[in-house]
Every structure is written in structure tokens, then in C-alpha cells.
Amino acid sequence: MLRRNRLDQDLDEELRAHLEMRAADNAAAGMPPEESRYEAQKRFGNTALLKEDTRNVDIIGWLDEAVRDFRHALRVLQRSPGFTAVAVLTLALGIGANTAIFSVVNSVLIRPLPYGDPAGLVMVWETDSLHPNPHNTVSPPNFLDWQSRNTVFSGMIYIFDERDNLTGNGDPQEVVVQDVSVNFFPLLGVNLLLGPGFTPENGQAGHDNVVILAYGIWKERFAGDPAIVGKSIVLNGHPQTVVGVAPQNFQWFIKDGSLTGAKPQMWSPFVFPQGWSDHNGMGRFMTVAARLKPGATYSQAQAQMTAIGSQLEREYPDADGHWGVNVVPLGDYLSGELRPALLVLFGAVACVLLIACANVSSLLLARAASREREMAIRTAIGASRWRIARQLLIESLLLAVIGGGIGVSLAVWGTNALLGASPKNLLDLTAISVNLRVLTFAVAATLFAGLLFGFLPSYISAHSRISETLKEGGRGSSSAKSRAFARNAFVVAQLALALILLTGSGLLIRSFVRLIGVNPGFEADHVLTFKVSLPRHKYGKDPTCLAFFQQLLARINAVPGVRSATMESFPPLSSLGAATAVHVLSQPSLAVSDLPVASVRVVGPDYFRTMNIPLLAGRFFNAQELAEEKHVTMINQAFADKYLHGENPLGQKAAIYMKSLSEKEIQPSEIIGVVGDVHQIGLDTAPEPAVYWPHPELVMSAMTVLVRTEGDPLALVSTARDELQKLDPELPMAAVVTMDQLLADSFSRARFTMLLLGIFAAVALLLASVGIYGLIAYSVTQRTQELGIRIALGAQRSDVFRLVLSQGTRLTLLGVSIGVFAALALSRLLATLLFSVSPSDPLTFAGVAGLLAIVALLACFIPARRATRVDPIVALRYE
Fold first, then answer.
1. Which ranges constitute the DSSP H helices of 326-428?
2. Are 418 and 104 in contact (CB under 8 A)?
3. What sign does the CA torsion over 277, 281, 285, 289 have?
4. Residue 217 Cα to chain centre, angstroms
5. Is 267 helix (H, G, I), strand (E, B) or coil?
6. Which residue, 167, 219, 506, 662, is most buried by CB atoms nearer than 10 A?
7. If you ran DSSP here, which 8-state letter would residue 30 be given?
8. 444-492 pLDDT, tens per residue?
9. What is the DSSP string of 71-132?
């Protein structure tokens, strides 16, 4: 009785405020201020409604009503701080997560590239039908033929990168320089920040000693000096004139075509030497881009370049047999690798927002029950259904706006955290920000969420029947049944969406566990790596280059704490490498284009022992073979399995065509040993056939030194740098990293995606469990009198417990069942992100379904226990 009196008192206060507000409006309109409640009700139900209809046409009147509705909504939310806080935080979490992920999606997939008319730019790759790779680099003679024969491109450019040593103006520094055509910047439509840039004259031999600086190195190395243009810098001992500085937002890093695996710091014009138009004996190492002519399409470009590739294949079968051309829009290429993961993450946060909306809708439905009589009285005195629905929608939108405001703040923090946790070279830290487009998305998501979670509660409340509602308690009314059904549906939807996210997270976790369990083929612990590049003007001859590296390794091996030191041309897991044709002489002779292809690795003394790569057959290189050319080589097991077909490889002769770039007659090398496979590209990529040469067989001026230490490898960096400086003070130590870090970086993308999806899945699980807890707890409150009667009539506490728990069990089973079928359909989208795990992995589905069911039932346990403690006497006095 006391509770009902308080409810009536609250309703009287609401009605009094409503009538006073109307009386004030009447006084402003010149109507009598004094009147009875009956007269006010009568007029509010008739003439006032006509005035409302008229005001709806009047913009000023409509705004006035909107302001009054807003003030009323604000007062309502202030009177329920607990409800408001829960709803706002739930929405802030969903909107903030969506905004943070959208900022990344916007940067990678939506925002225009920083080039002039980026839609017209394409990448042009070579493809080998015998060894499929859609993004293979291009040979110089093929580029020249493409350039002269095509009619769909207004221009073409070539790019390849190298590491040069920058000396003077500070400590020596290794820099990545992209050698490009002189029309590189004009074709991309990029205006330099400073300087005139390259001229046509720079495309001629003897006039190519100029460079353009990237914005970063201009700021860091040259302190942003605006007078740098026209000055000279020294690269590999040769002076180069600075003719420009690139803008801050410009970057050109094409991973598939990079020889260095790093972003460029300078650009230099490159002039083809004489003889580079010869198709025989030229390797493939350039990246090619082009701009479509106005009106030309990608399909037209692909058709013409395919025809040109077929012509070259017929004209030069040795060099271009089985080789074709692949034209790819630049935007599609740059976003292609990240697109699947970003779309999966964006779908995940969309699910989180839907769960948040369902949760808030459920809260609003529960809250609407306590306001049912209020809405009935408002309707009885003349408020239309639209008027009631509008008031409730404004309350929902106000909740959404507050939650969205907090969500944007969370998005700014979340974006920074996202970038901080992202793998190296995965995201461009300077390009991702909360800009106007992202804020527009946040506003749209806020309004969408407000309408989404507010529509159904407002509709049900506005369409409740007055006569049923005004009965004692209002129980059993159609609106109460509608609210109960809607709340049950929301809980089922939350559970189903949570299971979808949990399934995706579970699949990625299993995939990641499988990935880190892969044996890389070597021991990564306690190994320091750093690169040393010898400039050609000082170390142009092979004996000089060999002698330098022998001295360097001898000095480092003498350092206390060093177990062994060696070197390699392309260390494992660095995403770098070179490949060449290999002809095993015991097999039939084939054209060069038809020969097997193997990865090329040049190694120093004790390489296999330093890296702990096992010897499977034969022997390692001896001291004499590591000191001078003896025409010997080693292969890995993948080479033997793929190309030798069970034959004994030891003693066989193999011609390695990498040396065809410098030698007209290829000397075959004897295979002296077989070693274990190493994952060169990544743990998720199968080991490729590989040949190992001692350094004298193919002298390279840029090598990576690998040092196995007894303690922390990074503690040796300064000592190794000192030893390098003693040999040549102008040589920098570059790309310093431990092999453990390279190994961690190789699966960092998988770990990053798994971590984010796992966080979203955990949030979804929490919201879903809160949703079902709230539903069961509210149900127990509504059924207090019923439960009390059951206990008074002799029902056992355990019977009441099972009765309440059965309601949660039914909803849980329904939500899990729907979620399983939906997850089976959607998990296929994860196929490209999984390693050695099926998208329909039964163990993952069973484990996730069991976990969600247990959590949901635990959430039902507390209100079910509370139901067993209902006092029959108190329950019979309820209301």
C-alpha cells in the first residue's frame, strides 16, 4: 500500500507539472489563468490538441516543444542516475569502439590516396604461370617494351630501392634511397614542398647526381632547413645535390617490390645503363606504376597489357616464357592486405554496438513498466500517441548523445592505444586521426543507436491501452506482454551476437596457438642482427669486400660474451630475399624460363652452427670454400623434395643463374650438403626451396651480421658498433634488431587481430551476461507476489529456484542455437586470417557455446537464488 501511495504521489506531481506548464502557455495566449483540473483536462483534450497540430506546422512552435521535451527528458534522466549511468556507459563503449575502428578503416580503405587523381593510378606486375605470384617485380627490358607498345597509359614509372650510406653533417647513417624515373613525382601528381624537383636533363647519364629528400629525414637529419635545396650531401662517397623536399603526407612504400623492406628516405633519378634493353640475362627487380589515359579503364589496360605480354613471350621465350602481366588499381593493392582484417574488426564492433543497443532497449522496457500509469494518464488528458512516442524518443536520443560524446573521447584514447599496440609497418601512425569524417560517422552512429534502441520501447508505451493500464497494477495488459516478449527477444539477440564474436575470437586464438607452435627451423634466442652496406667506391672489388667482412667477423668473435658470429644476405623472417633459376645438370635441359626457381642465400663462416640449422645430409662448407670460390653449394630439404624427386642430391652439379648477371658462362656448382628448412618469409608460409652459397661464390656488398651471445644480445650493440667504426668510421650499423624480435614481428599481425577481436568478444560476453541477468532479476521482481503465493501454498525453495532458472535456460539455449548457425555462416569471412584451423572447427564452436551457456546461466543464478528467499507474508502485501 505504501508503495502504491508513493506511485500515486509521483503521478500527481507529474500531472501537476504538466497542467502548470499548460496553464503558463494559456496565460501567454491571453486565456484565463484560473480553472479547475476538470476544465483543464477538457480543453487539453480538445482545443489544445488543435493548437498542437497548428504549432507542428509552425517551426518556432515546434522548436519550443522540442526544447520543453528536452528539458523534461533531462529531468527524467536526472531522477534515475543509476539507470542513466549504466545506459550511457554501455552506449559510450559501443559508439567509442565503432568510432576508433572506423578511424582506421577511413584511413586505409576510404580516404583518398595522397596523389593527384589517385583513381587513375595502377600497379603493373609480372606473373609467372609456373610459380604463381600476382605481384612479381619487373625486368628493365620488359618495362621498356611495355612503355613503347602500350596505348592505354599516359605515362609509366619504375622504382627500386637500395641502401646507401649518408656521411657528413653528423654520424654516418644508412638511408633507403628509391631509384626512380625522372617523371616519378609528376606522374603521381605530387607537388614538392620545396625545390624544383627532377628535370628531364636528370634522366640523362652524368646528370643524375641529384636527390629529393623525404620530409622525415629533412626534419631529423637537416633540422628542417629551408635552404637545403641546392646544397650537396654525400651518399656512398659521391656528392649529390638536393633539388627538393617531398611533402609530409607523401610516402611510396610497395612492400612486394622492396629490396630493403623499409620506407624510402630519399629519391634519386636512375638512368638505364647501356645493355639493359637486352632480354637475355636481366633479372626482375623493379616495381612499375602507370597512369591511365582519360577514358581508359582497368579492364582495357589489363587486356592490352596481356596482349603485349603474349607478344614478348613469343619473341623472347627464354626470358619471358610463361610470364604474363597483371594490372591492379593502386588503391586496391595498397588496401588489399589489410582489408579482410579491418572489415572483420569493423563487423565485430558493429555487433558490440547492436548488443549495447539491445541492452539499453531492455533497460528502457523495464523502466517503461514503472512509468506505464504516467503515460496512461497523459494519454487520458489528451496527449496523442505521437506526443508520447516523441517524448520517449527524445529521452532515448538524449541518452545516445551523452553516450556518443563520451564515446568520441574514448575513441580518441582508443585510437592512440590502437596505434601503440599495432604491429610495425601495419598502420601509418601519421595518417590515422579523428577527423571530420570520423566525427560525422560518430554523430551518425549516435543518432542511429538512439533511434534503434529507443523506437520499440517508445512504440509499445505509446500504444498501451488506457483501460488495462489503469487497472490495479496493470498486470496482464497487452503492453506488459509486448514488453516481456521484446525483452526476451533482445536477450536472445545479445546472446547470439556474443556467440558470433566469441566464435571468431576462439578461431583466431586457436590459429595463433598453431602459428606460434611452428618450428621456424632455427634457434632465435640470443641472436643479434645488424646490416652493414659497403659503398662501391671503396669496396668495389670482390677481394676487398671479402677481406672487410672477414676482419669484421674476426673482431666480433673476439668480443667477450660472443659465442659465434656469422653473416647472411637475407636473414630469416625479414621478408626480404632473392630468387633465381636453378638447373640440376642430371635433369633434362630446359629453357631458362622453364627451370626450377629457388631462393638465394649467401652465408658466411659457421652460419648453420650459429643459427642451429640442422645438417640432414653431406657436410657444411669448409674453411677453404668460405675463403675463395670453389663452386660448391648447399640446398634445403624443400629443394630436394620438390626438384630432385628422391634422388641423392650429394655430388650433383647445379647451375645457379643468379651469376648470369655478371658472367656469360655459368659454372655449375656441386651440391655438398642438405640442411633443414627455414621459414624465410613467415611462420604462416611454407618453406621455399633454397640454395646456400658461401660468400666467395656470389660476393655481396650488403650483408646482415648475426651474432649469437651468451647474455642479452642488445647489450653487445655498442661494442659491435665500436668494432665496425675501427675498421671504417664512415660505415653505419643499420637495422639493429634481435632475432627474437623478428620472430615476434612475424606473427604480430595475427596477434593484433586476435587481441582486438578478443577484447570485443569479451565486451560482448559481459553485456550479454548483464542483459540476461537484468531480465531475470526484473522478472523475479515482477513475479514476487506469484512466487510468494507458490511458497505459501507449499512449493519448495528448490522448485522456485528451478522455475526461475528454467526461464534463463530457455533463453540461453535459444540464443546459443541461433548464434551457432549464424557463426557457421559468418566464420567463412575469417578464412584468410586463419592458419591451420578450419572456419567451422567443431572444437572451437563447442567450447564457445559451452562458455557462453555457463556464463549466461551463472548470470541467472543470483536472481534465481534471490527468488528462493522471498518471504510469503511480504510478497502477499506487495503493492
1. 330-336, 339-370, 372-380, 385-421
2. yes
3. positive
4. 27
5. strand
6. 506
7. T
8. 888 888 888 777 777 666 555 555 554 544 444 555 667 677 788 888 8
9. HHHHHHHHH-HHHHHHHHHHHHHHHHHHHHHHHHHIIIIISPPSSSSGGGEEEEEEEESSS-
Rounded to whole angstroms, how far apart are CA atoms 390 and 579? 69
Chain centre distance of CA 692: 36
Are the beta carbons of 400 and 83 closer than 8 angstroms? no
Can you tell me the distance from the alpha carbon of 639 to that of 643, in angstroms, rounded to the nearest whole number? 6
Report the amino acid identity of residue 850.
G
- 808: closest CA among 765, 842, 858? 858
Residues 6+ apart with CB under 8 A from 44: 19, 22, 381, 382
β pairing state of 527-533 and 323-329: unpaired
The values of phi and psi at residue 803, to 5°, are: -60, -45
Which grid cell sits at 532?
652493414
- How wide is the angle at C-alpha 445 spanned by C-alphas 444 and 450, nearest 5°? 100
User: How far apart, in whole angstroms, are the C-alpha atoms of residue 732 and residue 754?
Assistant: 38
Cell of 756: 582486438
pLDDT at 45 (0 to 100): 45
Residue 662: pLDDT band by 50, 70, 90 thresholds?
A: very low
Run of H or E residues at 244:
strand 238-245
Collapsing DSSP states into helix, strand and coil, what is residue 152?
coil
Residue with cell 549466461: 856
Helix 339-370 / helix 478-516 crossing angle, nearest 10 deg = 150
Per the CB < 8 A criterion, the answer to whether 532 and 730 are in contact is no
Beta strands at 238-245 and 323-329: parallel, antiparallel or unpaired: unpaired
Residue 414 CA to residue 434 CA, distance in Å, equals 11
Question: Grid coordinates standing for 115?
Answer: 596523389
**Which conformational region is residue 575 in: left (phi greater than 0), alpha (psi within -120 to 50 degrees), or beta?**
left
The helices-and-strands tally (H runs, E runs) of the chain is 29, 20
205: buried, middle or exposed (CB in 10 Å: 19+, 13-18, 0-12)? exposed
Q: For residues 211 and 194, what is the distance between their CA atoms, to the nearest angstrom?
A: 12
Please tell me the predicted confidence (pLDDT) of residue 522. Answer: 94
Give the chain's end-to-end CA distance (angstroms, integer): 5
Grid cell digits, residue 259:
629490396
* 800 touches 787 (CB < 8 A): yes
Integer Cα distance of 125 and 137 in angstroms: 6
Nearest to 70 by CA among 287, 493, 533, 392: 392
**Helix, strand, or coil (residue 854):** helix
Exposed/middle/buried for 576, CB within 10 Å: 0-12, 13-18, 19+? middle
Pairwise CA distance, residues 139 & 298, whole Å: 22
Per-residue CA distances from 439 to 103, 173, 403, 435, 443 (Å): 9, 41, 14, 6, 6
**Amino acid at position 423, single letter:** P
Kindly tell me if the per-residue pLDDT of 300 is higher than 90. Answer: yes
What is the DSSP-derived secondary structure letter of residue 643? Answer: I
Burial class for 25, CB neighbours closer than 10 Å (0-12, 13-18, 19+): middle
- Relative to beta strand 153-167, strand 173-180 is antiparallel
Q: What is the pTM of this model?
A: 0.79
- Which amino acid, 512? F
Q: Are 536 and 701 in contact (CB under 8 A)?
A: yes
Q: Is the model's pLDDT at 875 over the cut of 90?
A: no
Phi, psi at 261, each rounded to 5°: 70, 20
Q: How far apart are CA 228 and CA 224, in angstroms?
A: 8
Distance CA 871, CA 879 (A): 14
